[in-house]
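Backbone-to-sequence.
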């Protein structure tokens, strides 16, 4: 699979897996309906505990990213409305943004530079989405 774990990052392994699956889905590397490895196969491939792999998949399922079909496996859901309320989604994203702001502060990146970087990254992301839509 496409997951690269960093055991020294301080980020729990199950969150690293979940974040990377979401990133692959957002970039188009994974498409709706694509099968993911079973919990057992994922755990063996990444050499992690099965409970950790199951927790990552449970997180993704609760966010509406994955669909677990008993006896069939794990599949990426079609891009639709998130089952989470807008306030919950905003809170989760807000926490991530807070971490970015703190990191920018420590790196001495000013507000204007941070906004410019965000705009640049958003434009790049949208461009990649358009390219994938055309292929």
């Amino acid at each position: 699979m496409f997951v690269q774990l960093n055991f020294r990052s301080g980020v729990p392994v199950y969150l690293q897996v979940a974040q990377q699956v979401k990133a692959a889905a957002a970039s188009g590397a994974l498409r709706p309906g694509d099968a993911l490895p079973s919990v057992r196969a994922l755990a063996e491939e990444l050499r992690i505990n099965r409970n950790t792999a199951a927790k990552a998949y449970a997180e993704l399922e609760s966010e509406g990213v994955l669909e677990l079909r008993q006896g069939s496996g794990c599949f990426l859901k079609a891009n639709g409305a998130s089952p989470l309320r807008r306030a919950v989604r905003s809170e989760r994203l807000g926490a991530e943004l807070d971490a970015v702001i703190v990191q920018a502060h420590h790196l001495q990146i000013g507000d204007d530079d941070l906004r410019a970087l965000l705009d640049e990254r958003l434009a790049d992301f949208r461009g990649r989405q358009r390219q994938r839509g055309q292929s």
